[in-house]
Structures are given as C-alpha cells and as structure tokens.
Write a structure and sequence with these properties.
UDP-N-acetylmuramoyl-L-alanine:D-glutamate ligase; binds adenosine-5'-triphosphate; four-stranded mixed beta sheet; binds magnesium ion
C-alpha cells in the first residue's frame, strides 16, 4: 500500500428519509399522532459512499438532488461522512428524492419513496464527472438509477481501466409500483468486473424461479458466462456465493444480534468497494464486506448504521480471521 488514499467513486440515488414515530401505522382514511421525527440522508448513493469513506477511502458521489431544502440536508450528511459531493448535481426544478417512513411502537414500518431528481440523472452527468471515474480505483454503481447513466458509467470506467462493481438492484420505486420487471438488463451490465445482486435479483436476471442457496452457484456461473468477471450473490444471513473463473465459494455470514436490517446491502457494497480499491483478493474483500453487512444489522437506521473500519476489523478478529485487508 502506498501513501495515496484508495479512491472510490459511487454512483447511486440520494434520498432524504423523514421518519415519524407513531403508536400504530394508520390504515386508509385514519390519522394518527406522531411522537418523534428524525431525518437523514439515505439511499444507495449516500449509504454506500458513507461506508467506503468510513473504511478510509477518498470518496466521490455522483448523484442528483433537487432545488429544495432537502438537498441541503443531504449535502450536510455527506459532508459529515467526508464524502465529496462536487458531482452531486442540483436539478433546480425538481425535488430531492424523499422517503416518508412511519415507524410504529412495535417496530413495524411503512414507507413511501418518491424518486424526484434521482430519475433525472443522465449520461451527460456521467460525462461531466469523467475525471473522477478516471482517477478512482473502483467505480461502484447502483442499478436503481436510469440505465442510460449506468451504461455510460460502465463504458467510461472501462475506457480508463477503473474497476467496476455493479449492484443490479432495481429502482426501489419500480418494486413498489406494481413490482413489474423492467425487461432485460443492458448487455453492458454484464461487462463489469463484479456483479453483486442479492439472490432474488440474481434469480430474476437469469430467469430462475425459487432460487435457493444451492442454485446460487448455478446462477453465479450463468452470470459469468454472460460476461461478468465475478458474481457475488448475497443471501442475507445465509452469507454469499462468490463465483469467478477460479470456482465457486460460499462465504458464511457473521452471527450478530439482529436489530434492524436496513442498510445491510449498502454496507456490504461500500465495504467491498473499499477493500477492492486497495487491491485485496476478492474472497478476502467479501469477508470484510460481510462483516460490514452483518454489523449494519445490529443498529437502527440506514446511513447511521454503517459500521466503522475499526468495528469491522474487530468483528473479523473476534471470528479468528487472521487475514485482514490492506485497508490503510
Ligand atoms: N441478518 C444478517 N446477519 C449477518 N449478516 C447479514 C445479515 N443480513 C445480511 N448480512 C450480510 O450482508 C450481506 C448483504 O445482505 P443481503 O443479501 O441481505 O443484501 P440485500 O438483499 O441486497 O440487502 P438490501 O435490501 O439492504 O439491499 C450478506 O451477504 C451477509 O454477508
Ligand atoms: Mg441490495
């Protein structure tokens, strides 16, 4: 490891989550009284970028917010996590992506996502940020953004030899509105270095139904045949399957006390990007990322539940894992 900080660029959507606590989630036509309000930046953009920054990387986020006061809240959160927001564009005529969440006294929750400015990110926005993609060791992208932008980023990273990681998750809002599939993924999605779908997403991409841990290996191989250099299929507390030309390996999850699973996928992705940015071996990087995913489940919230580098290393050591990543 040289003295230079590892560099990660994250391309993902940004939301501000307004969470209101109430005794019970109201049903249609009913009103309830709230008892507390909290708001924070969330979404794959801020959470994955925040996690990579917590792991010691220099991080740029490419995203889009609106011309409203929520945009400032998002920028403030990013600054707290030392994420460079130079390429968090402002679409003045739009609203920042918003999540309105109701959390009941018994821990149930209900949420509504409004994508706002996230749906306005374009290929041109990626072109403008070409230099940071060129300078980065890793470009981490989330499939919830418009495909044109993701495809442009994959091409740009390829031109500059920047390692690519793609979480091919669909936009959360498309899952909420009818949950319809968006058709085949663009072929560029399969040209990345590392694809990180969860098991449901991987099954959907490869048209497999009822995916099980046993079929994860098969699905991973199919993703490799389609062009990805490595596929990491995440399966929650069942761990993940790493498939590449060297074979398939199941990496078990860490046993933790479950509090709230929000943010686990983003912690995993951000920590994976950080570990890959320092050139860790992929299976070693996956262990580091799995520890981050597990720790995110031990705290409430999304961005505020991303673990620190010290917490991740402590969990790895507790489990007797002697090989630690090159994270500075
Ligand atoms: N309950 C858990 N206990 C321990 N580790 C977990 C747990 N849930 C997730 N992880 C770790 O985090 C990784 C990513 O989690 P998961 O497969 O649930 O991602 P995801 O479905 O993409 O999540 P998200 O809905 O947040 O995007 C897992 O492979 C695992 O290593
Ligand atoms: Mg996910």
């Amino acid at each position: 490891m040289t003295g230079r900080s590892p560099k990660v660029v994250v391309i993902g959507s940004t939301y501000v989550d307004m969470a209101v606590r109430c005794r019970q989630i109201p049903s249609s036509g009913q009103s309830v009284v709230g008892s507390a309000l909290s708001y924070t930046a969330t979404g794959p953009g801020p959470c994955q970028a925040g996690q990579a920054a917590l792991c010691g990387c220099e991080v740029h986020l490419i995203s889009k917010v609106g011309g409203d006061p929520f945009a400032e809240m998002a920028r403030k959160s990013l600054a707290e996590f030392k994420v460079n927001a130079e390429y968090v564009y402002a679409a003045e005529a739009k609203n920042t992506g918003i999540v309105v969440t109701l959390v009941s006294g018994t821990g149930e929750n209900a949420a509504c996502f409004y994508a706002g400015a996230n749906s306005a990110i374009q290929g041109q926005d990626i072109d403008t940020a070409e230099q940071v993609i060129c300078d980065a060791d890793v470009c981490l992208m989330h499939g919830g953004l418009p495909r044109e932008a993701i495809v442009r980023a994959i091409r740009c990273a390829a031109v500059h030899g920047t390692k690519t990681i793609l979480d091919p998750a669909r936009a959360v809002e498309s899952r909420c509105i009818g949950g319809q599939a968006e058709g085949d993924l663009p072929m560029e999605f399969f040209s990345v270095d590392i694809l990180i779908p969860n098991l449901c997403e991987a099954a959907e991409i490869t048209d497999k139904s009822a995916a099980t841990i046993r079929t994860a290996k098969l699905i991973g191989s199919e993703l490799i045949t389609r062009g990805a250099k490595c596929a990491i299929i995440t399966m929650g507390r069942r761990g993940c399957m790493v498939v590449d030309r060297n074979g398939a390996d199941h990496i078990p999850s860490f046993d933790v006390e479950l509090v709230d699973q929000t943010g686990r996928g983003d912690a995993f992705a951000g920590a994976l990007a950080a570990s890959c940015a320092v050139g860790d071996d992929i299976r070693q990087a996956v262990k580091f990322a799995s520890a981050a995913g597990a720790l995110a489940c031990t705290k409430f919230g999304s961005i505020e539940s991303m673990p620190s580098k010290a917490e991740i290393i402590q969990l790895l050591q507790k489990e007797g894992l002697d090989v630690l990543p090159n994270i500075p």
